[in-house]
Specification:
Chain lengths: 118, 110
């Protein structure tokens, strides 16, 4: 079974530039998550999609970050304009649709995109 | 106060020894709990769920104490390959939102 795919793996940009990340979840997983992981910290949820609808975007800095999942499969996360503090690994994860906590607690992560903002 | 707190470590453990560490959580309504493992520069992967009665998976034992709001992980007979950061994860709501701790680093030495 193919895992969660992300691209690019690495990106270096200057502050105030724009950047976009792409994620393809595991086939059949309706729930998709974007996390930001700053060095030395745990992943922080930015946005959660259920199919193509947003379930939770309470921690997404909406003045500069946006995300979409138009057809309920692939997703893109965009930062515009980037700041130095956006340097982090951006992880995409997916899980099955389930209200059973033990099932939805199993999230499968992609390899991440390591963003460096100079 | 952070929602999920962990001792960052590192815990330096001789090969073959036992190591244990805890994680505390602040939301008493949290529904379920997990340990994820994250190797250096890799993505997190589910290690095990944590059940109220405690559970084992090979050399790994997880415990939950709801009264004191902490979970623990014990690793017996440590292997070099157990060197990683262990993330404590709390399931916050029915839609699957997970709250991650910052992780406990374990370094197993020969």
């Amino acid at each position: 079974e193919a895992g969660v795919a992300q691209s690019p793996r690495y990106k270096i940009i200057e502050k105030r530039q724009s950047v976009a990340f792409w994620c393809n979840p595991i086939s059949g997983h309706a729930t998709l998550y974007w996390y930001q992981q700053i060095l030395g910290q745990g992943p922080k949820l930015l946005i959660q999609f259920q199919n193509n609808g947003v379930v939770d975007d309470s921690q997404l800095p909406k003045d500069r970050f946006s995300a979409e999942r138009l057809k309920g499969v692939d997703s893109t996360l965009k930062i515009q304009p980037a700041k130095l503090e956006d340097s982090a690994v951006y992880l995409c994860a997916s899980s099955l649709v389930s209200r059973e906590p033990s099932a939805s607690g199993t999230q499968y992560f992609g390899p991440g995109t390591r963003l460096t903002v100079l | 106060r952070k929602e999920v707190e962990q001792d960052p470590g590192p815990f330096n453990v001789p090969e073959g020894a036992t190591v244990a560490f805890n994680c505390t959580y602040s939301n008493s309504a949290s529904q379920s709990f997990f340990w994820y493992r994250q190797d250096c520069r890799k993505e997190p992967k589910l290690l095990m769920s944590v059940y109220s009665s405690g559970n084992e998976d090979g050399r790994f034992t997880a415990q939950l104490n709801r009264a004191s709001q902490y979970i623990s992980l014990l690793i017996r007979d440590s292997k070099l390959s157990d060197s990683a950061t262990y993330l404590c994860v709390v399931h916050q709501d029915s839609w699957g939102k997970l709250q991650f701790g910052a992780g406990t680093q374990v370094v197993v030495t020969p």
